[in-house]
Amino acid sequence: MIALGFWDIVLLVVVSLQATLLAYLSHPRWKALILALPIPFTLAALAVGAPVNAANVVALNVLLAFTHAVRLLHDKVRMPIVPAIVLSAAGYIAAGALLKSVIPATDLAFWLSCVLTLGIAAATHHLFKRGDEPDHRSPLKPWVKLPLVAAVVFGLILIKHVLAAFTTMFPMVGIFAAYEGRTSLRAVCRSLPDFMFAMVPMLAAVRLAQPRLGLGPALAVGWVVFLPMLYPLIRDFWGRSVAK
Fold it and tell me: Among candidates 205, 210, 211, 209, which has minimal Cα distance to 227?
């Protein structure tokens, strides 16, 4: 018998609605904005119930690899989008299952992973240029799309013990962002460094607050840190002219 906890159910419902909303936004920049909200991370962290540690930070880099893997397989290798997403998601699961038990839960490992992740985000932000890409809006009706999204999130909940902390950064919404944004994968990829720049301080705030406050209140503190960090980066992404 499958036993779902309270936060499992909240994760299933809310992330399914978030991914469905993303599917019906046509502009790549709106998709990127919805994708950047750390709703899946917050609810998955509560569902997993473990303290934030270095594995959560390292998972950001695996998420970045997933997103670019989909883009390269689809745009460069010319693989159909669904196999490209499935293969990239399988790579994320494999990486998470392997890395979860080898990453130390120490403070030193956490802060070193934060520095490394910020460096990777800065390099990616600098090297990966903007592209002019078309809008896309899902042709599927919501009552068709929503059960498909829920099935993917439910499958992740079933294997959360395999991924542990890597569950929190699994691209639950990113899978559908990649599918719905298959004509604008550069825009989706472009949003990831911005997300990483904001998520690392959020994770640091949660790490510092959780021993005294507990995980739930610490995540609320993390949101207070996250939103101001994300704003100037999204404004930069949104405001400049798109490179040809």
Answer: 205
Given a cut of 50, the residues of the chain with pLDDT beneath it are: 136, 241-244
Neighbours of 175 (CB within 10 A): 22
**Is the distance from CB of 207 to CB of 53 less than 8 angstroms?**
yes
Place of tokens 């520095």: 115
C-alpha count within 13 angstroms, C-beta hemisphere, residue 41: 26
What is the 3-class SS of 156-220, one letter each residue?
Answer: HHHCHHHHHHHHHHCCCCHHHHHHHCCCCHHHHHHHHHHHHHHHHHHHHHHHHHHHHHCHHHHHH
The answer to whether 184 and 136 have CB atoms below 8 angstroms apart is yes
Torsion of CA 71, 73, 77, 83, to 10 degrees: -130
User: Shortest CA distance to 155 belongs to which of 8, 28, 30?
Assistant: 8
C-alpha distances (whole Å) from 23 to each of 7, 125, 179 are 24, 25, 9
Tell me how many degrees the CA angle 93-94-99 measures, rounded to the nearest 5.
100
pLDDT of residue 242: 43
- pLDDT (0 to 100) of residue 47: 92
